[in-house]
Write a structure and sequence with these properties.
Layout (H helix, E strand, L loop, with lengths): L4 H10 L6 H9 L10 E6 L5 H17 L2 E6 L4 H13 L4 E4 L8 H9 L4 E4 L16 E4 L2 H15 L5 E6 L5 H17 L3 E7 L4 H14 L5 E4 L2 H13 L9 E6 L2 H8 L5 E4 L5 H12 L7 E3 L4 E2 L4 H4 L5
Helix pairs in contact: 3-11, 4-5, 6-7, 8-9
The structure holds alpha-L-arabinofuranose (AHR).
Alpha-L-arabinofuranose binds next to helix 3 and strand 9.
Amino acid sequence: MSLTRRTFLMTVSALGVLGSVSSVAMAADLPPLAKKDTYKVGFAQTESNNPWRIAQTESMKAEAAKLGYQFVYTDAAGSAAKQVADVNSMIAQGVDLIFLAPREEKPLIPAVLAAKKAGIPVILLDRSVDPKLAVAGKDYVTFIGSDFVEEGKRVAEWLVKNANGKTKIIELEGTTGSSPANDRKKGFDEAIKAAGGFEIVASQSGDFARDKGRQVAEALLQAHPDANVIYAHNDEMALGAIAALEAAGKKPGTDVLVLSIDGGKEAVQAIVDGKIGAVVECNPRFGPIAYETLKRYAGGDKIEAWVKNKDKFYDTSNAAAEVSGAY
Ligand code: AHR
C-alpha cells in the first residue's frame, strides 16, 4: 500500500501523536538515498587556490576511489554563481548525492533547495549555509565540519596567555559572507573583548588568499604602525602577512605576533621557525567521515544536524613533532 505524505500526516494526527508530527514531517522532507554497493557522488568544491582546498579534494577523491564510487568533481574557482551552476549540472547528471562546500552562507541556498527539489540529498562539507534559510535534517542531510567559533576562541585564549604586552591587533578576515569568516571573527572578538586590555585596531577581509592577505596586511600595517599582533583567519593570509612584515623590515614572531587557523605544513613549520605563535587546526581530510555519513544515511540512521570535526592545536610545544603529519 502506498502512503502519500499528506495521508501519512493525517493518520499520525488521527492517532493523537501530534507532538511528534513536525519532527516526523521534517525527516520525511529529506530526499532518501537507496542502499547500494556503489554510488555516483558529486563534490562541488568552492575553489582550489590553497593547500587546504587541495588536501580536502584529494581526501574526497581518494576515499571515493577506495570505495569504487563514481566521483563527479567541480571547482567553482571562487565564484558562488559558478558553484550554483555546478550543482545544477550535477543534478542534470543524475548523481545520487551531492557533497557541497558552500563558498558563502546565502548565495548557495538556491543550490541546496534545487537539489532537494530534484530528490537528491545534499551533505554540506566544511562550510555551512544560513540556518534561517535552509535547515539540516529538512533541506540538507547534515553539516560536517569544524566549530569555527571555537577555533577563533582558542586562538584568542592562546593570545591572552602569551601576549607579553602585545595588545594591538590586526585581524585578517576570510571570505566575506562565508561561515568560517563570520564564526572565526565572532569566537575571537568575543573572547578578546571578555579578556579586556586588547584592541582590534583594524579588521578587513583578505579573502582567505595569500596574495590578498599580504596586500591587506601591508596597507593595514602602514595605517597602524603600532600594531603588534596579526590574527589571520587562515594560514594562507598569515603567510601573506609574514611576507608583508618582512618587506616592511619587521620581524614576525618578535616584533609582531602572528596567529592563524588551518594547520598546513608551511604554517606549522613557521611555528618551528619562530614566525607564527600558534595555529588552530581546521582538519581538511573529510573523505572518511563524508562517505561514512553517506552510508549511515543510506542505511536509515538518523543523522545529527552537525557532524563535528575535531581540531588539533599547534604551538612551540608540539610543532616540531607534528610538522611531518600536517597536510
Ligand atoms: O572553510 C574552511 C576554510 O576555507 C579554511 O580555513 C580555508 O583555508 C579555506 O579556504
